[in-house]
Design the sequence.
């Protein structure tokens, strides 16, 4: 019988060598898996986290392993390329940091063994991702096992496959379930026994055969129906020789039908089922991507609490444990590969292998409904023939490997809607940040209306939208201020615009959690993207979290916004309450300020005198906060960039003249300003070569988006694209702007 031997404990680790050791190095550091070497330097800013080859070594006595004919080393995640050595012999190389892969180590094992795994997250031009707004943590960051099996066993060599493929088809009230298996060294006299169990473990179907594919029927099938009823069956296959069970495998599955309708949105089991949810990255403060099951569970519980019906698992394959949680909780999942930001002509084979692994390893999950081809990969233009061909190859591959699920793509905002590239997948979504990266929040809904009017037969979704918030505060929120109040305002507006358009097949907030992006230098806390509804450490739910909970969750609650914004200078201040109840009453020091009825967002004008205890009440529900009158604005609430090249208060800004603190769109209104801005963009966006921004397409839509930025804010963001401006560069530019009169 199959046995799994876990190898997570006590590996020797080092960054300080470039050779495979011949014996266990006792002077290396001892670590347990999961492990990443970028848990600290991948989150502290500077874009200087270690990217290179590191080594893990472990002594292994074969006598400690279960007795078996064959032994397979299983690596569930090594980012991003890895080599396996057993007793000095190189057995395998793998490219791709987010999937499971296995190595047959049977012949290489001796009584005493030295196992070495080199892992490399160095920059290169063949393994995705290479350019993206998140940290590429290096390490053996998921479980490592040895799978011990009989000579005859279910296949372990095929792209990390679980060994069985389950395809349920709902027909009227029943389900036809096709189960396919692959066996290595299948011998005469051996047979397969297929089982289906219901959720309680009761056997409902069984058959014996030598065929690798069979069909079993479930009468009066219990459908998997998202969060409302995530009912799971289990398929099991035994490999028998006579009465002896040589190997067995199993997987849970769900029976459901769905379609993505260009007018009605997502339809699950014949019922309109709006997909309103979030995206997720797989990292945490101080841990990087080396997560334990309890971390995945906490993430799922928070996503479930906010009321999300869908998760975009970006921008790569996530842990199998999290996909299992999605099945159990009834989440509708977008799964994708890290073909992102920058197309690499030398990376085609890697996109193909990562897509094969994604589909083969995750085919059985009922939660997954679309395969994502790429994300914002047309940043440098949508007309590259090699890029187009790469997408067609991936799209065709998806349909060959999985005839049941459509393909999708997350398109960067400025990409023209009539681009042939946009028409490749079955459905499409756009990443839009109007109101944060330029533009205005009011532009989001109308953009989708224009797309829907021009292409009424194409299902359109919003795969990313969001804005950043830290512990900065104001009573007058504006785009780019990084306050919790602006983030709340932004999401209120986006909820109203996106949720009211039924034809938008799915919406995914970017992001559920703040995440590591070491190249970032903005918002006052470098090395992170702060667009999360929840902080990086999962300790604080921002006000915007409760805006979504008010719209999406059935769990009764009331939430007072602005709990971290206590000191306020105005005589009368605005207080917002979020709730999924029909009516809310607000009390100030026990005195009622009145009741409000409405749809989830309730606004009150509150006299600000001395210290006031605010209490929001709806029935038995209540929430409290405090505000305090101060004479002047509390400067601790104002954004201060950490280790910034320049801060806004360091810049000379003569009255009536431009400075780095002015918006690019305003500067472009003058001939001198236009010349200066174009000169700047030409300098930071190379036209060729290997620079990460080389060939970046500056079309009209991109210019319109950039117009909403101040030059100072833009300078703090372009580090994520490999461009660095010095203090001298900015001061010189500001001096030139100071000579240009405002129009």
Sequence:
């Amino acid at each position: 019988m199959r046995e799994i031997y876990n190898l997570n404990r006590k590996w020797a680790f080092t960054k300080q060598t470039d050779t495979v050791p011949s014996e266990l190095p006792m002077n290396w550091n001892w670590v347990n898996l999961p492990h990443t070497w970028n848990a600290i330097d991948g989150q502290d800013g500077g874009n200087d986290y270690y990217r290179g080859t590191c080594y893990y070594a472990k002594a292994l006595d074969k006598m400690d392993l279960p007795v078996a004919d064959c032994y397979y080393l299983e690596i569930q995640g090594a980012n991003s390329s890895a080599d396996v050595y057993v007793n000095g012999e190189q057995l395998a190389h793998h490219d791709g940091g987010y999937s499971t892969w296995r190595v047959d180590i049977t012949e290489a094992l001796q009584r005493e063994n030295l196992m070495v795994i080199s892992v490399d997250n160095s920059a290169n031009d063949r393994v995705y991702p290479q350019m993206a707004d998140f940290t590429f943590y290096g390490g053996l960051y998921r479980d490592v096992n040895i799978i011990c099996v009989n000579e005859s066993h279910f296949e372990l060599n095929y792209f990390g496959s679980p060994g069985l493929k389950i395809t349920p088809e709902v027909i009227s009230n029943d389900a036809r379930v096709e189960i396919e298996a692959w066996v290595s060294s299948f011998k005469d006299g051996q047979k397969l026994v297929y089982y289906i169990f219901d959720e309680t473990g009761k056997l409902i179907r069984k058959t014996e055969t030598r065929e690798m594919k069979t069909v079993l029927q479930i009468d009066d099938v219990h459908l998997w129906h998202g969060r409302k009823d995530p009912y799971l069956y289990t398929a099991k296959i035994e490999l028998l020789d006579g009465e002896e069970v040589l190997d067995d495998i199993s997987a849970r599955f769900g029976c459901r039908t769905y379609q993505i309708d260009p007018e009605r949105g997502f339809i699950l089991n014949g019922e309109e089922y709006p997909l309103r949810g979030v995206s997720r990255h797989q990292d945490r403060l101080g841990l990087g991507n080396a997560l334990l099951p309890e971390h995945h569970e906490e993430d799922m519980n928070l996503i479930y609490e906010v009321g999300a019906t869908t998760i975009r698992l970006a921008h790569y394959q996530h842990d199998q444990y999290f996909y299992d949680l999605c099945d159990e909780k009834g989440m509708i999942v977008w799964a994708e590969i890290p073909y992102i930001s920058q197309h690499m002509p030398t990376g085609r084979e890697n996109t193909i292998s990562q897509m094969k692994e994604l589909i083969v390893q995750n085919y059985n999950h009922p939660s997954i409904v679309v395969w994502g081809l790429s994300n914002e990969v047309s940043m440098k233009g949508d007309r590259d023939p090699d890029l187009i061909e790469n997408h067609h190859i991936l799209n065709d591959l998806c349909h060959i490997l999985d005839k049941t699920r459509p393909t999708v793509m997350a398109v960067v905002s400025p990409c023209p809607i009539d681009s042939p590239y946009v028409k490749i997948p079955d459905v499409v979504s756009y990443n839009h940040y109007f109101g944060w990266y330029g533009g205005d929040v009011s532009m989001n809904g109308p953009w989708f209306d224009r797309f829907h009017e021009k292409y009424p037969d194409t299902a359109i979704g919003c795969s990313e939208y969001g804005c950043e918030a830290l512990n900065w505060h104001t009573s007058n929120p504006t785009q780019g201020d990084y306050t919790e109040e602006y983030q709340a305002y932004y999401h209120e507006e986006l909820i109203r615009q996106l949720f009211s358009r039924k034809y938008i097949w799915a919406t995914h907030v970017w992001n559920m959690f703040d995440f590591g992006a070491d190249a970032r230098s903005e918002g006052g806390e470098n090395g992170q993207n702060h667009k999360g509804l929840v902080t990086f450490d999962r300790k604080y739910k921002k006000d915007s979290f409760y805006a979504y909970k008010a719209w999406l969750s059935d769990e009764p609650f009331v939430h007072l916004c602005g709990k971290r914004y206590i000191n306020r200078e105005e005589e009368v201040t605005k207080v917002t309450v979020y709730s999924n109840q029909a009516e809310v009453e607000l009390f100030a020091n026990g005195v009622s300020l009145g009741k409000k009825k409405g749809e989830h967002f309730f606004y009150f004008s509150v006299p600000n005198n001395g210290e006031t205890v605010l209490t929001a009440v709806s029935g038995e529900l209540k929430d409290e906060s405090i505000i305090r009158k101060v004479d002047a604005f509390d400067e601790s609430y104002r954004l201060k960039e950490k280790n910034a090249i320049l801060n806004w208060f360091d810049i000379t800004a003569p009255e009536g003249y431009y400075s780095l603190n002015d918006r690019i769109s305003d500067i472009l209104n003058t001939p001198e300003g236009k010349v200066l801005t174009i000169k700047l963009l030409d300098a930071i966006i190379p036209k060729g070569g290997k620079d990460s921004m080389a060939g970046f397409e500056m079309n009209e839509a991109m210019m319109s988006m950039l117009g909403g930025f101040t030059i100072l804010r833009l300078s703090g963001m372009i580090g994520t694209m490999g461009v660095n401006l010095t203090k001298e560069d900015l001061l010189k530019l500001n001096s030139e702007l100071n000579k240009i009169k405002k129009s």
User: Anything to note?
Assistant: The longest strand covers residues 244-253. The chain has twelve helices and 44 strands. Residues 689-696 have pLDDT under 50 and may be disordered.
